[in-house]
Every structure is written in structure tokens, then in C-alpha cells.
Amino acid sequence: MLRSLRTPHAEACARVHAGGFAHPWSKQEFSSLLADLSAVGVAALDPASGRLRGFCLSRVAADEAEILTIAVDPTERKRGVGRELLHEHLQQAAFAGARRLFLEVDEDNAAALALYRRFGFQQVGQRAGYYRRQDGRAATALILRRDLT
To answer: What does the pLDDT look like over 75-118, one tens digit per residue?
Structure first.
């Protein structure tokens, strides 16, 4: 079940984020982001338990939005959760006034790139050395964009 992502989800967001990122964000960082009026987010919740299965979070400014992060609990991957989240999130961002949506993704994240391309995102740039992997190596971020109109 999909719901709006809210401040009470901050702790669960930090837990899910830690399952997918080398440098995860803290509960306090999520609390701050979710309290921001420019934030737009969607949560995928388990219908039986209410447990957070995944989430997508953006910041909207004027007519543009940027996906800050999207994360799916490792136990929920390959079940369509990311696809459901992104589909709903595109609608939320458009409803919030965004005409374009941007994101950055590690060039080696094949699963994420396949998802984004399936939804019509196109590469518009890159940032060399943008990410730090757990082993300390630098990774290039691809900048993707999708028009929402």
C-alpha cells in the first residue's frame, strides 16, 4: 500500500536506507528532510504490518524536482516495489508543480538505471567522483532527467 511519506517514517527510512547505501542517512537527517515543506515523498507499506518496504523522497523548487533518494528494503527487492514507488512519485511531483524531475545515480547501479530508463529518464550529464563507495573508491554519478508534462 502506498502512502505519503511523513516525519514519523524517519526512523524506518534510515533503516531501509542503510540497507542500500554505503553512506546511509540518519533518522535526524530524514526527520529534517521530511519536515521541509518542499519535500514530497511516497512510502510503500506492508498492508498487514505497516512496515516500511521502501520509499522515494524529492525536493520541489519552482517547477523542478530532484529525487533525493529512493530505497527499497533488501528483503523486498525484485518484487516491483521500486516500480510502484516511482510511478506514484512521478504523479506526486507533477501534482506539486514540478514539470521536470532530476536525479543522480551511480553509473554502476544497473538495476536503478534500468528502472529509471523504463520510466523515460534520459541522461543529461554526469559528476565524476560524486559518490564514495564503502571501500573509499570514487564513483561517477549520472544525472538523469524526465519531463513530467
So the answer is: 999 999 999 999 999 999 999 999 999 999 999 999 999 999 99
Residue 37 contacts residue 59 (beta carbons within 8 Å): no
d(CA 78, CA 76): 7
34 in Cβ contact with 10 (< 8 Å): yes
When divided into structural domains, the chain yields a total of 1
For residue 130, what is the domain's CATH number? 3.40.630.30
Q: Which domain holds residue 62?
A: 2-147
- The whole-angstrom separation of Cα 139 and Cα 133 is 7
φ, ψ of residue 15 in degrees (nearest 5): -65, -50
Check if the beta carbon of residue 59 is closer than 8 Å to that of residue 66. yes
| Cα separation, 42 vs 72, whole angstroms | 12
Strand partners, 147: 100
Whole-angstrom Cα distance, residue 43 to residue 75? 16
pLDDT tens for 31-65 read 999 999 999 999 999 999 999 999 999 999 999 99
Give the 3-state secondary structure of residue 103. strand
Q: What residues contact residue 82 under an 8 Å CB cut-off, 6+ apart?
A: 54, 70, 72, 112, 115
